[in-house]
Amino acid sequence: MNGRLEAARLWWSARTGREQVLLAVMTAALVGVLGWYGVVTPLMAASDAAQARVEKASIQWGALRGLAAGANRSTASGGATPQAVVEAAASKVGLPIARHRQDANGRFTIWIAAIDSKILLPWTASLEREGGVKVTDFTASRLDNGLLEAEITFARAAP
Question: According to its UniProt record, where is this protein located (predicted)?
Answer without folding.
Answer: Cell inner membrane
